[in-house]
Structure formats: C-alpha cells, structure tokens
C-alpha cells in the first residue's frame, strides 16, 4: 500500500512538473490568445562553391518545449542585392524537451559565385495543448554568402562536365560591361545580375566535341570564357 501511494505521488509530481512547464511555455510564447514562437536564429550558413551548394545550420531551442511537438520550418533563399526569392521550402521536425541542431542543404541552379545568396527561416509550432490561435514566428535575420572575386577566374562554372540534355547556367563576374555571350556558335540572351555581372541559361545542352564546347562572354576590351563538356 505504501509503495502504491509513493508511485501515485511520483506520477502526480511528474504531472505537476509538466503542467508547470506548460504554463511557463505559454507565458513565454503566448501573446493574448496566440501562440507565437520566438524568432529563430541561424547558427551558420556556408557555401560549397565547387558544387553550388548552401549548407544551413540552426538550433530549434527545443528545451523550451516540455513535451513532444511537431514544428514546421519555412526556409527562403534570396538572390542578388534586390533580394529576389528563388526558393521557398518547408522542412518538418519535432521537438522533445532538448535543444537540437538541424542541418539543411540546397543546391543552386546558378553558380554561387554569380550573386550574393541569402537565407532566412521562420517556424510554426503545432501544439495540441494550446487551444488558442497559433501563428508563424517572425523571420530570422538573414545570413548571406558571397564570392570574393580574384583576378583570374571570371566565368563560372569552370570546365564543368554534365550530361547531355541538362540545363545549366553560366555567369560572368566582371566590372566591365558585357556586350554579348555565346555557347559554341549560338548567341545567348543576357540575364543581368548585380553590377555588371551577367548570366546565360542553357536548356537541353547538346553533346560536346571531344575538346568541349566554348562558352564566351565579350566586353569592349576583353573576352572571358570557359569550356563545358556534355556527354
């Protein structure tokens, strides 16, 4: 009988802790009748320029939540100085009483050297214990990555090998005004980026000769280029 009473008391204590934690959570996160998570913060944003891949890392601050919850993250990728949104995705996770660092990667269809890329995140907490209105958090402060140009390489990607029929984007990073661009003998329309930087997009690329296919950007005084191998 004494053992049973002790077990019941232990269960009541655990329940009281959960209720207290829930109350603390709601007092921290609720404004009126709305559950609004704190603004998330990105821990790190890094770039693998060789693969045009961004690597994102953030902490979910899960220790604030005393029980298992589903969390929806919205991740936005912006490009260029005018913050053009090029990707908006959702990423689902769970929290369960402890902080967890999450990782997410994204590969750009444009070489990362071509323009500044920025990332922001926000979250939505699905809390079945809360009967009020639930809202998205504010967007995190943006993190960005950009290329530090050198004096040698102007056109990206360099010496790329891809499959026939693929789509690929090339860009020229320069302070000179680009007058024209072509792949092989075909002229391509210019896509204007930041400053004098430009890009061209090739759809369904044809097979290359053994020596590759030249991609050339022409300015008033210079010619910049690379070679693409499609096979």
Automatic annotation (TrEMBL):
One Pfam family of this chain: LIFR_D2
Entries under InterPro entries matching the protein: Ig-like_fold, LIF-R-like_Ig-like, LIFR_D2
Ranges where the Leukemia inhibitory factor receptor-like Ig-like domain occurs: 155-231
Lineage top rank: taxon: Eukaryota
Leukemia inhibitory factor receptor D2 domain segment(s): 34-145
UniProt protein name: Leukemia inhibitory factor receptor-like
